[in-house]
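TICKET #2291
ISSUE: user wants both folds in one file
ATTACHMENT 1:
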Amino acid sequence: MQATLLSVLGLALLGALHAQDSIPIQADFQQDKLTGRWYSIGLASNSNWFKEKRHLMKMCTTTISTTSDGNLEVTSTYPKGDQCVTRNSLYTKMEQPGRFSYTSPRWGSKHDIRVVETNYDEYALVATQISKSTGPSTMVLLYSRTKELSPERLERFTQFSREQGLTDDEILILPQTGEAGGTGR
């Protein structure tokens, strides 16, 4: 009985690891080209905080810079109520170019971040697997160099989010600051 249970748990763990490894990473990733200002155009997640805050979310600005030791400093500024809030995060580079780790000092969650695809001057698609005590979650971000992005790029974001197991209710094209409401995808 114990051996069967261990076998099942082992297979479940293997399945989870395989699912995580199935997320692609940008071929020939060039970190220096990812730096600069981006707008968060789309956000998809199956986390509880996303479900609770989805109706309040708006587009934000994110600036990415490289630290002296080759990691990424990610600074996001987003509207919260009638003010702007800035959050700084340090993404630690991993062995594979285009893959980073981050541990939230506030929540203790561990983030496996992958730059899935980008052309550096128009858009970037980023997937994050999050591990925390309440269970795992997935987040997909669509960044753009401008506040608007082609319908093809928006559709690619939606398609990729669905491939990660996210439902249409968990996928959001963020409204620009000052706009009322939001459009789900």
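ATTACHMENT 2:
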Amino acid sequence: MVEAWYMDESQEDQRAPHRLQPNRAVSLEQLRRLGVAYRRLDADNYETDPRLKEIREAENYSWMDIVTIHKDKLPNYDEKIKTFYEEHLHLDDEIRYILDGSGYFDVRDKDDKWIRISMEKGDMITLPAGIYHRFTLDENNYVKAMRLFVGEPVWTAYNRPADDFPARKQYMKFLAEEAQ
């Protein structure tokens, strides 16, 4: 089961857990109110998993690939790790399914505080278009993930500040409606 918590303000190694002391856990319901969707799937059988097929059809995830983030597998590894960890948003949902290894997605809550989401094998997450977020490996330094898209993939990340994009405005409207 996925675990999430509020992060401390430390600038130490980004791969460390960075839990507040005492820990402030974040529930799946709290993530849902931010527009973050979570599913648990059978990563050992992703190629034939009927549940993954059902999700892809229901959500129109027509395109997918698999990326391995490890210093020996990813070209320009150091540069990519820095880029992934820069706070940004996308104009489309970001869907990631962890097939092996582990890492962290960090998202901003409605008060602009960081929440760290620990992702492991079998976890699928959908981050809504317009949410500020970032990704990093954990201390294991390895993750293999499926990237899913509706239609052709768009890889463009817009670093903060990017508040003038319609996707960000729509996301902020969603948050305001959730707060009512």
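RESOLUTION: both attachments delivered.
EXTRA DETAIL ON ATTACHMENT 2: The chain has one domain: 3-178.
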